[in-house]
Amino acid sequence: MRPLTIALCLHGYFPDQFFGTAVYARQLAEALQRRGNRVVIVVPRFDASLDHPRLSEPEWLGGIEIRRILRPRMRGMRDTFDDPRLMPLLRKTFSTIGADIVHLAHFLGLGTALFAAAKSLNLPIFATLTDFHGFCHRGTLLNSWGLTCKGPNRWRTNCVSCGLRDYADERPQSWTLAYLASWFARPTSAIALPLLTEMLPRQSGDDIRAIRERPDRLFDEFTTIRAAIAPTRHLHDAYRRNGFAMPMDVQSFGIDADRSAKPPRRSDRLRIGFIGQIGKHNDPEQVAQPFD
User: Fold this and answer.
1) pLDDT tens digit string along 60-92?
2) Element housing 6 (H / E)
């Protein structure tokens, strides 16, 4: 097989971000390049000073080429997953580097524009599913009560409930939001507000509509993925339960561990190491609780 040029897309990369997905993307890029392929990291970078998105100059880091899409501030919830302003820049990037394949490690920050750009050039899209963002706007499957969620319900009221809680956290000065997102008012708010979008302030109504439309919009795009990798059975099953039928294989990330002999232990006291981002969504006490 001839060497390929692979556009490896994700939501953040070194030095801006250094969490698990960035580490995975770097190691995947290095492994693919060792096999003779060319890998170009395609990633957004937010710049609130911009009025319109633009391309930055190519960068190199650790022998890997990086192309950044400079993004202006978000205009609302819809821009977090569906910002058509990015499509021409992504198409230009894929064309300039001569991409043969688009590999998606995370779509956040690039959104549906990534799919549109790839499809306009007839490029096949592959993916590594690193979290639940394909159908959960939080990406964690932890709902507004802090419990494990199964995914969007038929009427998306649970998604609106999460959105209310998130809005209230972002705007602590708003007494109205604080009340609507409170534990006693939130169930009613999540049902009533979508019915009242035409009566709400324009931005609020647009954001509620975007939250409700997000799962279907992304589902339509994700079904065009040629094949996907899920690092855990739990992640694989969550996507399957939410209707995603693209070919999907479970392949654990693995750890390139040092296999040399370890020094003798100084005591019998048990020591536990944790690998990953320290966050509530990684707390086993949280993710073990089922919620319908």
Assistant:
1) 999 999 999 999 988 899 999 999 999 999 999
2) strand 5-9
Question: Hey, what's the torsion of the CAs at 232, 234, 235, 237, to 10 degrees?
Answer: 120
Residue with tokens 């992304």: 218
R_g of the chain computed on alpha carbons: 21
Contact (Cβ atoms closer than 8 angstroms) between residue 151 and residue 131:
no
**Do the Cβ atoms of 27 and 8 come closer than 8 Å?**
no
Strands 54-55 vs 64-71: parallel, antiparallel or unpaired: antiparallel
* Distance separating alpha carbons of residues 17 and 29, to the nearest angstrom: 16
What backbone torsions phi and psi does residue 197 show, to the nearest 5 degrees? -60, -35
pLDDT in tens, 94-125: 999 999 999 999 999 999 999 999 999 999 99
Q: What is the model's pTM?
A: 0.86
- Alpha carbons within 13 angstroms on the beta-carbon side of residue 84 total 0
Task: Please spell the DSSP secondary structure of 155-202, one letter per residue.
Answer: T-HHHHHHHHHHHHHH-TT-HHHHHHTSTTTHHHHHHHHHHTGGGS-H
Residue owning tokens 């954001």: 207
**Going by C-beta distance under 8 Å and a sequence separation of 6 or more, which residues neighbour residue 282?**
276
